[in-house]
Amino acid sequence: MATLTAAAFSHDRDFARSLDARDELSAFRAAFVLPEGAAAFDGGEPIYFVGNSLGPMPVAARTLVNEELDDWSRLGVKGHLGSRRPWYSYHEQLRAPLARLVGAREHEVVAMGSLTENIHRMLTTFYRPAGKRTKLLIEKGAFPSDTYAVMSHVAARDLDPSLEVVEIAPRAGEWTLREDDIDAEIARLGDTLALALLPGVQYRTGQALDLARHTRAVHAVGARCGWDLAHAVGNLAVSLHDSNADFAVWCSYKYLNSGPGAVAGAFIHERNAGDLSLPRHAGWWGNDPATRFRMEPRFVPVPRADAWSLSNPPILAVAPLIASLAAFDGAGIAALRAKSVRMTALLEFLLRDLAPEVEIITPAASHARGAQLSLLVAHEAHARYEAFKAAGLACDYRESGRGVAGEGIVRLAPAPLFNTFDEVWRAAQVVRRTVRG
Ligand SMILES: Cc1ncc(COP(=O)(O)O)c(C=O)c1O
Known about the structure:
Elements: H1 13-21, E1 32-33, E2 47-48, E3 57-58, H2 59-75, H3 79-82, H4 95-102, E4 109-111, H5 115-126, E5 135-139, H6 144-156, H7 161-164, E6 165-168, H8 179-189, E7 193-199, H9 211-220, E8 224-228, H10 240-243, E9 247-250, E10 265-268, H11 270-273, H12 315-331, H13 333-354, E11 359-360, E12 373-377, H14 381-390, E13 393-394, E14 396-398, E15 408-412, H15 421-436
Parallel strand pairs: 2-13, 5-6, 5-7, 7-8, 8-9
Antiparallel strand pairs: 1-3, 4-10, 9-10, 11-12, 12-15, 14-15
The structure holds pyridoxal-5'-phosphate (PLP).
Pyridoxal-5'-phosphate (PLP) binds near residues 114, 143, 203 and 228.
């Protein structure tokens, strides 16, 4: 996707409003309940730019959850097979929309578990240290849960995490990884590399990595490649099947708007999903549903991503995902991504001009980022972040990771399903007023 040039934009509010007027996705905003917030600085509605952390509630989620509560109260155990969306096969209705969303085949995706649990499940299967091939590559500064999971797996195989876990970092003085450096590190590790676990979008900087490129590099040295898509799913238009990744995992409460702790998801490439010989954690929900209730002692995995499911799914935590995926299906991830690229580029254009003292550490090229812009605030960062929120701009704050007093990162993520270009314009005014006084 081409990087948008500044010449394509204007500082005028009317310009932002004209983009909204032409926005074919604008009706989807009404499908969400936007959270209450501080009254905005201009008396307008609060601006919710934190869908990268917890997406807002789809209106239909309440109906769907209530329907399940009704069915439970009316039917009790009979609801497993007799409710309007039978619980026995409940998660199966998510396959098709999830597959469309992440560019996968239906048998390659499954809604299950939580993100960190799913990282563990995938590490059990795909981290298979043997002989000299023992190294596990992650990024330095990965989301802590990923690092903890990786370290604990290496230790559980009686290997030394300080030797086997290789963390690739941006160059000194830089915030983001150079993609050439990632491939060079993969090549350097060569036949010692067992698995790479990389982020689709880095949570702190908003940098997007090229899934197909790095998967290719990892496969070229004979290792396996998996992706944490927590910040990429519902944000980028990924093509997981074609990327050839061995697996990918994500949560559903960020861009997928499915509620706190909502059921998460996983992709397992069909060459792996159909390989019944792979080691894995086994549970009865990964067993072939046709034979599950024979209650036999031997686990017979179903030849699809479902084989990694352990338990019968938490229906109340799956229901909101049905509502959210219906919105993604209606809008289409390609159209959403196209709008997102324009929104984020407009935000960047306005911030560079209105608040040049704030450094944007997210890459400038649209193919190297998603919706989020990460602003490095050099002084009194936390107080500034509080001031943003007090002025009606809901955003979030992360430590910079450099240990520099007063410094911090504020993340702003306009989401194309429910945010407007006018909100982008208003958010930029909040930042300007707060940092300039
Ligand atoms: C990149 C990334 N990985 C892992 C996690 C952990 O998610 P969970 O608590 O759902 O396991 C998060 C949570 O925000 C995340 O952003």
